[in-house]
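Quick one:
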Amino acid sequence: MRIIDQLAGDPPRLEQKFWRRARITIGVVLLLICAFFVLLLVYLTPRIMFRDPELYMSADRLIVRTRNLCILLGVAYLATNLLSAPKYPILFLRRFGLDVNSVVSRVIKAGLGRRFRFVALDDSRFPPINVPAAERWLSRLGPPVIAVAVLGASAALLSRFSTMPDIGGNLTIETSNMMGYWAGVIWGLLVLALTHLYRVRHHSRRNVRNQRSLQVLLYEIRKLSKWPFRLSLMAPQTIIARVDDSLWQQTVSAALDQTPAVLIDVSDPTASLQWEIEQLRESSHKCVFIAERDHLRLWTERSSGDSEAQSSIMNLVGNDEVLTYSAQSKLGGPAFRQGLKLALSRAVCGAPKPRFPKPLPVIWRLWRISKSALFYACLFVLVLITGMIVKFVVTEFVFYYNCPLCRTP
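Output:
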C-alpha cells in the first residue's frame, strides 16, 4: 500500500460541461423570475390596498394569490434544485466502536456532505447526520424573519394610510385581514419546514431485521442520488442502518450494488474488514482507502495480534493509495478534507451505474403510499386549521391595536 498524507490535482468533472452550464443558466433564470414576482408583489400591494382594499382581500383574490404562491414555491424549488450539484451515495465501511470514526463524521458536516451522501452500518459512535447546519437554521429562522418583515411592512403601511383623512374605515379592517393572511401563510411554511426536518432526521436511521426492511433500505439508498433530492435539505447526509448479524453480509453485498464508490477505513484490521475488501475486489468496485495515521503505523509495524487479517488486508489493498488523517485534529488535518473530496470525486467519475434493487412487493408499496398520503393529508389539515387560528388572532390583534374606537371605554 502507498501511504500518503494528501492528494494533488484538480477534481474531475462529474458531469458534462454543456449540461452543467445549461442547468445553472436555467436555474438562475427561474430564480430571477421568482425575485421579479416578489418585487412585483411588494410594489403592487400598497397600491391595490389604497385603491380598493376590499378587492385585495376578496375570496377569489385570496384563492388566486394562494395558488400563485404555491407556484412560486414550486418554481423556487425547481431553480435551487437545478443549481445544486449532483449527489453521489458512498458506502462507508469501517470498524465499529472506533473513536477515530468521529473525524469522518465531522468532515461530512464540514461540507463533504454537500457533494456526497454516505451510508454506513450502525455504530453508536458514528452519529446520523441529517441536513447541513446552514440549511437547518435557514429552514428554522427563514419563516420567522420573513414574518417579522411582512408584519412590520404591513404595520408601517397601516400607520401611513391611517393618517390620510380621505381613506375610509375599511382600510384598517382590510389591512388587518392582510396581515392575518400573511401571518397564516408564513405559519404554514414554518410548520412544513419543521415537519420536513423531522422526516429527514427520521430517515437518517434505518433498521434492517428482515428481507423486506433490507429492500426498503436499498430503495432509500437509491433515492439519495435522484434528481428531486439534490438539495442538501431534501435527504440526510448520512444514513445509519442497524443491521441484524444474520443479514450483515447480505446487506453489505446489496449496498455495494447501489453505490458507485466505497470508502473504507483500514485504521484497525479485522476479519470483517478483510471480508468486505474481498467483496470489493471481486465486484471490481472503485474504493477509497483512508486510515488514522498512528493506528495505521501501529498495525503495519507490529507482528503480533491478528497477523493473518493484517497480511491479507495489506495484500488486498495492494498498491492502492491510503489517505491518512490525524485523530488529534478536528478535521483530520489541514489537507484531509480536500484530499478525501478529490479521492471520492475520482472514484465516482466513470463508475458504472448502480443496479436497480429488487422492487418492493405491490402490497408493500401501496401501504407506503397510503401512509404517506395519510400523513400529508393530516399535515394539510393541521396547517389549514392552525393557519386559520393564527390569521384570526393576528387580524383581531392588529385591528384592536389600530382602531381607537375599540379601545375607548
